[in-house]
Amino acid sequence: MLRSALLNVMVAAARKAARSLTRDFREVEKLQVSVKGPGNFVSAADHRAEAILREELAKARPGYGFLGEEGGLIAGSDKTHTWIVDPLDGTTNFLHGIPQFCISIGLERQGTIIAGVIYNPIADELFTAERGKGAFLNDQRLRVAARRDLGEAVFACGLPHRGRGDLALFRSEFEAIQDKVAGLRRFGAAALDLAWVAAGRVDAYWERDISPWDIAAGLLLVREAGGFVTDASGKDTMMQTGSIVAGNEIMHHELLKLLKGAK
To answer: What residue spans define the domains of the chain?
Structure first.
């Protein structure tokens, strides 16, 4: 696959930050037995990865803005472009030595996501997409799953946890969906959940109370793989509302109906 100069910049930045994260991940298991625990170490790893991404992307596109999970919004001289970056999506997994985490980089141009990269360095899975040019995993073209029957489908979801999110609403949604599908999965990294929808590994995904950097790259991947993405009310305002629903046309439609019925 011949990548554009823009994607090459994003991929190079993701791979450089991934080298730092991978080194830190190998240290996490050793820290699990310490009294203090690995929490502070993982926070530092997160900040290091974001600093690398910011530096590498700024070198290639110095005028672009930068919205990162750790550092917030840094305005650029070019007001039409903003990098939207999660340097470590799946922090809790990383903290516990679970190899399900990734770097996510999206590029927004005048309110539209035009390019996305999601990289899981442990699996060496690189997901890429550009608007109008398709979605890829390690240079292989992606398509969302073609399943049409809810009874054969596996859905991914997010779970409210420790003071975050509406647990009562999730329980209602879970109850409405659980007996309609073949399985529900919680993997712990929203960007990878979206990438897996694009790859056809899961048929649909929903989550609430989520941040723009978690979904910017992934929503483009799903759409470029032939899927549908909206917020939980069916609108194209995921970045503003903090909810997201993704899947192929039928699964997306059915999941939206189930979620609306659960309220």
So the answer is: 5-141, 150-261
User: Is the CATH number of domain 5-141 3.30.540.10?
Assistant: yes
Q: Which CATH architecture has domain 150-261?
A: 3-Layer(aba) Sandwich (3.40)
* CA gap 204, 250 in Å, rounded: 10
Close Cβ partners of 255 (under 8 Å, ≥ 6 residues apart): 155, 177, 204, 206, 245, 247
State residue 35's pLDDT score. Answer: 44
What is the Cα–Cα distance from 107 to 81, expressed in whole angstroms?
A: 7
For residue range 180-229, what is the model confidence (pLDDT) as tens digits?
999 999 999 999 999 999 999 999 999 999 999 999 999 999 999 999 99
Cβ atoms within 10 Å of 145's Cβ, excluding its own: 23
pTM over 0.85: yes
Say which residues have a Cβ less than 8 Å from residue 82's Cβ, sequence separation at least 6. 64, 65, 66, 67, 73, 76, 107, 108
